[in-house]
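fyi for ur records
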Amino acid sequence: MRVGLTAERLVAAAAELADAEGLEAVTLSALARRFGVRPASLYSHVASTDDLRTRLALLALEEQADRASTALAGRSRRDALVALADTYRDYAREHPGRHAAAQLRLDAGTARASAGPRHAAMARAVLIGYAVPEPDRTHAVRLVGALVRGFVDLELGGSFAHSEPDAEASWRRSIDALDTLLSHWETA
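which gave:
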């Protein structure tokens, strides 16, 4: 086994590989080649490719949550909504492979122990500024997540690359529309 090989180093290398070549390129074989070792040498650090990708998802969720937390500090309502949405979009553009990893389905225990609950708490905090009542906040959190993730995933996939107006204009209009909707939220 190569000296200095750790789970953390493997996850960092997996993150770089995912961003450069896509999440599907992240395999134990690919990392073994990168480190000049046999794939079997990695099993003392990670259990499988799925385990490696789960660890990558956890890293991405943590990085995103840290960025969002910093961006949200001292902001409310529309400013907070824009900061939250822009943080996720910017992260996805800078780290497309990590963004893809953050979308992986985690088992319930892993999800609860991840930064995922921080994401939900931040989205819920943004909604407090809009006075969305508690029984409806979960619906509103899901709406915000669906708009942001859907737009970002379509943009990363090239869906907006060949039409006018540019994606930036549509992004701003979408966030404006979401702000208007949240400002006038009606309970059922």
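The chain has nine helices and no strands. thats all i got for now
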